[in-house]
Write a structure and sequence with these properties.
single chain, Transcription Regulator spoIIAA, five-stranded mixed β-sheet, 5 strands, elongated
């Protein structure tokens, strides 16, 4: 073997290997063969005996360190090689990513990864739910842990501030449902049944569903952004350092506030939707307000309203937990805050719709 060829000497007792020769582009193949011969128990690398070193040699050593799970900062280099090593180490991860593959196997692989990731997210959410329920029960035994001021503040933020938006959208949706229903019912001369259509639709489904979707987009994103910003500024770590529980300080006040305010907003949405139907009946369907209200009173069933209100606390708990969990999972960068905020909105809206569909089927099968 030429004197300039890459070589290494291994010391099995200490787990150290000493590099020799020229680790350059012209010896790229020999470098790979040399590193593959390194003992499995290698813990230290001494490259001070390397005669010449270029970017290829440094990259090979970086990949060797990653493969063997070694600390590259612990590699020893000659003083005149350190600047090159530092420069290559800074940019070696900046290579352009591989082009996305569009074949069937690649699509199947992406689907598999997505299923695994979603399953992991569901398990994390379930465990987070259990932790919060346990600490909610602890509040019963230790009321001094309850944070009244943050809870009231969040009630104002998620409840009172959302009233105009919830009422306006519910009113307009109620009017649209009345218009669409009257178009069909007019063919049978049964426009008066628009009253039952709007009332049952809003009391059972649309009131709670619209409110939950609005708060999923408005409140879940706010919770994620607020807590994520605290994670980025290491405020959550400071809370733990002080011996305090971030769940008690940051999560439970938001959960309790949303569980109180979402049923109240749902009731307002129901009333606004009924008002939208009443307005359309009075101005477009020639149903006087007195006749509309009399028909509503005759056909009203309390169970429809109770079904809608019963779903509100469940949706509130789901939205609050997703928003807070995604915020706590922020990794400390502005990009991570944006990604987690988007994820919280998508997850909250999707799960609210899925749960509402399952609940509707269950209540129908139960005859409620």
């Amino acid at each position: 073997m030429p004197a300039s060829a890459p070589s290494l000497d291994a010391d099995p007792k200490s787990g150290r290997i000493s590099l020799r020769g020229r680790w350059t582009l012209s010896h790229a193949g020999a470098i790979g063969d040399c590193l593959r011969e390194a003992p499995e128990g290698t813990r230290e690398v001494d490259a001070t005996g390397v005669e010449r070193l270029d970017s290829v040699g440094v990259l090979q050593l970086l990949r060797f360190a990653q493969k063997r799970e070694l600390d590259f900062d612990g590699f020893r280099f000659r003083e005149d090689h350190r600047a090159l090593v530092a420069a290559i180490e800074d940019v070696h991860d900046d290579r352009p990513g591989r082009k996305r593959e569009y074949g069937f196997a690649a699509a199947l692989g992406r689907l598999g990864y997505a299923v695994v990731d979603n399953g992991r997210e569901i398990m994390t959410l379930i465990s987070f739910l259990g932790e919060n329920l346990a600490k909610l029960l602890r509040l019963v035994r230790e009321p001094s842990r309850f944070r009244l001021t943050p809870t009231v503040s969040h009630m104002e933020q998620v409840g009172l501030d959302a009233v105009p938006l919830v009422v306006l959208l519910s009113f307009l949706v109620g009017a649209v449902i009345a218009f669409l229903g009257s178009t069909i019912l007019a063919e049978f001369g049964a426009q008066i049944f628009v009253v039952e259509l709007v009332s049952i639709a809003f009391l059972r489904e649309f009131g709670v569903l619209l409110t939950a979707i609005i708060l999923a987009g408005r409140t879940a994103s706010a919770f994620t952004a607020q807590i994520g910003a605290m994670v980025s500024r290491e405020e959550v770590d400071a809370i733990r350092t002080l011996g305090l529980d971030p769940i008690d300080l940051l999560v439970l006040p938001r959960v309790i506030a949303l569980m109180i305010m979402l049923p109240l907003l749902t009731f307002l949405a129901m009333m606004a939707g009924l008002a939208g139907g009443l307005t359309v009946g009075a101005f477009s369907l020639e149903i006087p307000p007195q006749a509309y209200l009399a028909r509503f009173q005759d056909t009203f069933e309390l169970r429809h309203m109770l079904v809608g209100l019963a779903k509100a606390p469940v949706f509130a708990l789901l939205i609050a937990l997703i928003g807070c969990l995604e915020g706590l999972q922020v990794e400390g960068t502005a990009q991570s805050v944006g990604e987690r905020t988007t994820s919280s909105v998508v997850q909250a809206i999707s799960l609210v719709i899925v749960l509402d569909a399952l609940a509707a089927i269950w209540f129908m099968e139960m005859g409620w």
